Amino acid sequence: MRRRGTAVGAALVLSGAGALLGLAATSAQAATVAYATHCVPPAGISPVDGTTKVEITAPATAKAGETVDIVWKFVAAASRNPDIIGLPANSVQPSGVLKAAGAQTADIAMRGTRQNPAIPKGAPMVLSDMKGSVKLTAPGEVTLTPDAYTVNAMSTDTKCTPKETVQQSATIKVTAADGTPTPTPTPTPTATATATPTLTPTPTPSTTGGTGQSDFTGKEVRIPYACKTPIGDKSATSPVRIDARRNGGDYALTVRFEKSVMDSPADIPAGSVKPSMEVVVGGADKGTVPVAGPANAAPIKSGDPIAIPDLTGTYKPGATGSSTLSPGVLTINALGTTTTCTPAATQVSLTLDTSGQPGGTSGGSSTSGGSTGATTTGSTTGSTTGSTTGSTSGGLADTGANDHETLKALGLVAGTATLLGTAIFTFMPRRRTR
Q1: Other CB atoms within 10 A of residue 114 CB
Q2: How many whole angstroms separate alpha carbon 51 and alpha carbon 255?
Q3: How far, in Å, CA of 275 to CA of 238, rounded?
Q4: Which of 31, 50, 148, 280 is the most exposed place for a label (fewest CB within 10 A)?
Q5: Distance CA 326, CA 313 (A)
């Protein structure tokens, strides 16, 4: 009896598994499409043209009103990892857009996880699967076509866009909500219908204040700085993010640098390193806001890590409308010397809906008592698509610096640049370096 019962149970399990497999075969489809792609990496690396191969998996059929999940699998990215630096495991994250057309039109946001094996220099890029979802709102056929995508690798972006018309990769046949067959399209104008789908949310490049919102998180942008140091001109690129907290009509600003660290080449006394910055205000408002960070509270021994502190200050809007905040001139005082770093180009990190305040910008005040009454700056906002930006696509990554050999000489770890550490390395007196 035990053997018979076991056999019957096994038969039921196998039968159920077969039914599930049959269901999966009819409810999901996967199709591969290849298209020529143009990729723009971070500053310092030439654009790359290659071929992207993508496999889109989506339900073959669904009902109007349902939200369906879609998977974008990279069969091949458009390029290899450049011969600059190996990428560590779990340091690459893709995101992109899938175009829906037919019964409804939509841009479906797709995003992958930061999950990858270690990728050596010159090796093919390995990108995780991207996932997204869309709410189907009208019966008919909905086609899915891959479009542009971005690859973020170690805080650098490379943007990849199609160079040709991309073929649709999958089609979803959408029936009416009551299960009736899809109606036959008619040539009359009233037969067409469009609807806005519910998309998977994607982090926006900048945050705009909404009603009742008090905390605003900016986008991390990579800023190429040209620095005047006591021992000559240097350049380095630093990732910067500007956050804000509303307090009445004012905003408490916090400028955050990437929390990577560098080893100090010499002993640095307490209170000898202090950074400050002018945040550039654009859009409806104009001017700059001073922000400053604390000096190092404890001595830094040779070989110990150096971290850049957060810079804080207060922004009092001088105009009503959509105002932008961008990283500006950075000043580093250390060991009795001053290094001034000016952005070669800048990008908007945060956008706020502001209301003009009496005595508002130009400027504000830093929590460390920096000067108010800053002046209006000209070419401060820059473009988010210039040479300072990039996107990271099928395999492009960069240390993000304008001078790779300089940064290598400074001993940057994992290809990232911490501007404060770079400045300290550049102006440290020779007799104190190893």
Answers
A1: 13
A2: 39
A3: 14
A4: 31
A5: 14
Lowest-confidence range among 172-186, 391-405, 411-425? 391-405
**Amino acid present at 142:** V
Task: Please give the structure tokens belonging to residue 335.
Answer: 């060991």
Q: How many residues does the chain have?
A: 434
Three-class SS of the chain = CHHHHHHHHHHHHHHHHHHHHHHHHHHEEEEEEEEEEEEECCCCCCCEEEEEEEEEEEECEEECCCEEEEEEEEEECCCECCCCCCECCCCEEEEEEEEEEECCCEEEEEEECCCCCCECCCCECCCCCEEEEEECCCCEEEEEEEEEEEEEECCEEEEEEECCCCCCCEEEEEECCCCCCCCCCCCCHHHCCCCCCCECCCCCCCCCCCCCCCEECCCCEEEEEEEEECCEEEEEEEEEEEEEEEECCEEEEEEEECCCCEECCCCECCCCEEEEEEEEEEECCCEEEEEECCCCCCCECCCCEECCCCEEEEECCCCCEEEEEECCCEEEEECCEEEEEEECCCCCCEEEEECCCCCCCCCEEECCCCCCCCCCCCCCCCCCCCCCCCECCCCCCCCCCCCHHHHHHCCCCCCCCCHHHHHHHHHCCHHHCC
Which amino acid is located at 91 in the chain? S
> Which of these, 348, 333, 337, 349, lies nearest to 420 by C-alpha position?
333
pLDDT at 368 over 50: no
Query: Bigger pLDDT: 420 or 117?
Result: 117
pLDDT at 15 exceeding the cut of 60: no
